[in-house]
From TrEMBL:
This is Phosphofructokinase domain-containing protein. Keywords: Cytoplasm, Glycolysis, Kinase, Magnesium, Metal-binding, Transferase. GO terms for cellular component: cytosol. InterPro entries: Phosphofructokinase_dom, PKF_sf. Residues 123-419 form the Phosphofructokinase domain. It comes from Oryza rufipogon (Brownbeard rice). One of its GO terms (molecular function) is 6-phosphofructokinase activity. One of its GO terms (biological process) is photosynthesis. Gene3D superfamilies: 3.40.50.450, Phosphofructokinase domain, Phosphofructokinase, domain 3. Pfam families: PFK.
Amino acid sequence: MGSVAMDSDYGVPRELSALQKARALYRPDLPPCLQGTTVKVEYGDAAIAADVAGAHVISHAFPHTYGQPLAHFLRKTAAVPDATVITEHPVVRVGVVFSGRQSPGGHNVIWGLHDAIKAHNANSKLIGFLGGYDLLGRTRDQIRTTEQVNAAMTACQALKLDALVIIGGVTSNTDAAQLAETFAESKCSTKVVGVPVTLNGDLKNQFVETTVGFDTICKVNSQLISNVCTDALSAEKYYYFVRLMGRKASHVALECALQSHPNMVILGEEVAASKLTIFDITKQICDAVQARAEKDKNHGVVLIPEGLVESIPELYALLQEIHGLHDKGVSVENISSHLSPWASALFEFLPPFIRKQIETEKLLAQLVEAEMNKRLKEGTYKGKKFNAICHFFGYQARGALPSKFDCDYAYVLGHVCYHILAAGLNGYMATVTNLRSPVNKWKCVHDDRKAMVTRTSCQSNWEACCSHGELLRQNSSSFLMEDIYRNPGPLQFEGPGGETKPISLCVEDRDYMGRIKQLQEYLEKVKSIVKPGCSQDVLKAALSAMASVTEMLTIMSSPSFSGQATI
């Protein structure tokens, strides 16, 4: 990687800063299972869909690609007798496309993929398609409809691609799952591999511990939030309402709250679970403002996720009606007269500047200000006049230089893509687990994408956040009242902050496959003990224990039990 970059639009050289030049010299490490030119893979059981009730439907929708075995890539020296060893690496042609919005670190997937295919055969080719990000350009094209899927297959066949790597988030990987199924059904030889890259962090399940870009976005935003906290503490007269990107999921807001310790954070998933209205949320914030004023604190910082409005029942229903009218060509000026009575009343209640575009932070700030002024006049609020400042920390962070963790993670995922291709697998997602540990302890276990995408809805993947959600709840009172603001500082590649990872990643025991393997070892031990000839007492104890465990697991695996899951 050189010190001169080409402008993506005009092809003219642009000068790099000293930092960019230093970063260009960085070489990420690889875990032992990806080092060398030998690909060694162990196949395990087929993964199941988390939604047991929907597994039958999914298996019928994806008959060619659902229920494929787990693929676990091993180091060359691993003593696994049943492992498949691949030493011959013919020339391959691999296509890569960025799908969706930009996410810091995404380019390192290409870097890792390019290094991997060239290391195994110098004559292999990597072909980039027009897609998202600046390296390959940006397009609104999708691979979703029958026509689009067929066009993609035609292009892959014309270019004689051995594999197509699709880099993106939940929607992109869901589309890629359908593409892989169609290719398999049509006997198209191109294999489809997905890579979890999205700054929203909402592609999260047992196998995807986090996504590329999430760490960078949270660190960049946390520094900005910390700066705002310092300003609020200094001025002592402003409440900052900060809206953070993340679409419907609140993962970015939660992680930034853990990193920067603002006074309050409103989480969309908890709002939805508690069925809170906009007025409930307003009252919560007002009560907090009043409690702080009683301690002579007339300032504060409130974090709001981008998709909060979708979690508030009445606002979401209003938006659905408005979108339906927009699709019918109704102008903004005439919206109110076409809405249902209750929706029209709510629409007219909203401040005029909110009606054209609902910016949640401004709406809440306006409602809180009105309520606090009301309490001030009534004499129930003894604090100073409420002053709010609103910010949206969002897309300006998409172009940030990626964190060291995102650089390493993305580069490793690029290598994983080649290993999946070398193993001849179709419809898989490149994943790495045990990410909280150093790179040399990362594990590469891969599941077919259909079982994965059924686990990536906003509500279901929020269940994976229970540990750090609980950490936030434990500290919410002190965050609210004590102003224990924390400043993680700017992104660092070296020094005390260079090796930090998302708090939400580090507080959880996410070695899912490690625990599966541990369970299998226990089962093997039981089999070795309970054999013909063992004592009656041993047999009786084993039967009793296994009957109890089986009954409990059957209940927990039932659809009715899954529906009772709480945040």
